[in-house]
Amino acid sequence: MLIKKAHLERLKKEGYSTREIKAIESGTSQNAVAQVKKIREALQKDPVLRKRFRDKIIRFRREHERTWIKNRGYDNYNRLFRHVLGMPLIDFLTKKAGSKKQLSVLDDGAGLGVFLRDIKTKLREQKIDVKTDAVVLQRSPHLVEMDNIYEGPSEFFLTNKKYDAIFSYYGSMHYTERWAIKNQLIKFTNLLNRGGVALIGVDFIGLRIPPLLDQMKRQFAKQGFELTYKPHYVADEPSDILMIRRL
Predict the structure, then answer these.
(1) Where are the beta strands (DSSP E) in 19-177?
(2) Which of 9, 73, 199, 237 has the highest count of CB atoms within 10 angstroms of its CB?
(3) What are phi and psi of 7, to 5 degrees?
(4) Is residue 229 exposed (0-12), middle (13-18) or buried (19+ Cβ within 10 Å)?
(5) Parallel, antiparallel, or unpaired for β 163-169 and 192-202?
(6) What is the maximum span of the chain, computed from C-alpha positions, in angstroms?
(7) CB 179 within 8 A of CB 56
(8) Which of 56-70, 129-143, 194-208 is the least confident region?
(9) For residue 202, which phi and psi values (nearest 5 degrees)?
(10) Which of 98, 93, 99, 170 is nearest to 132 (CA)?
């Protein structure tokens, strides 16, 4: 998608980075780019917010190293997300691949990448080619092999790719500042292909309040998405499950 010269100049004046402009040119939804820009602008304008954001990343990184299970694999993801899918996760992914026998998958907060390795192995057995991308806060020497790895705060993650499935099991949605969660959700869902699905496991009990959930469903419906929510009552697993499908 080529950008007209006038539009390109406007993007530069508004502060879009070269990476963001390239993402727009290559077809990434401008809405996804806009969410990254909104988060950056909010942090630039408010020093207190910026410090809180930076401190939170540092604090959660330390807690992550002590307590987060970095080697969560297929069994963990399947046990959680099958409740909202109504079928085993591997069946869902096989169905999603269809006759093309191809899938593009992103894991937001991938840990060591064990889940991505597991699904690649399982899908290869069915002769399905899957491209696996991961977003991690900090690289580990124990990361398994993946097609692409993005290192850094997920709030600033941007790509020119589209995905058939996006997963976030205690990923950035769980750790992001409350004011930025909406931007994160919109950004990730706008990276989905048509018919693509984002599956998010998070502790966000506020979603159990009907007015808030209904409002979110309406907002996403206006942008061409279907949102499904299920509470989850299993210890040591995310208490809330979101499934967002691009129509």
Answers:
(1) 102-108, 129-136, 148-151, 163-169
(2) 199
(3) -70, -40
(4) middle
(5) parallel
(6) 54
(7) no
(8) 56-70
(9) -155, 155
(10) 93
| Residue 159: strand, helix, or coil | coil
State pTM to two decimals.
0.85
How does strand 148-151 pair with strand 163-169?
unpaired
In the block, residue with structure tokens 């997963």: 167
Its sign, for the CA torsion 60, 62, 63, 65, is: positive
- Return the residue matching tokens 């977003």: 135
- What pLDDT, in 10s, does the model give residues 17-67? 776 666 665 555 678 888 888 898 999 999 999 888 888 776 766 665 554
Ordered by where they begin, the domains of the chain are 70-246 (3.40.50.150)
Residues with Cβ within 8 Å of residue 105, at least 6 apart in sequence: 93, 116, 119, 130, 131, 132, 133, 163, 164, 165, 166, 167
Letter string b/e over residues 157-168, b meaning 16 or more CB atoms within 10 A of that residue's CB: bbbbebbbbbbb
The label of the residue with tokens 């020119």 reads 160
Let me know: does 103 contact 93? Beta carbons within 8 Å: yes
Which among 138, 162, 164, 167 is positioned nearest to 150, based on CA atoms? 138
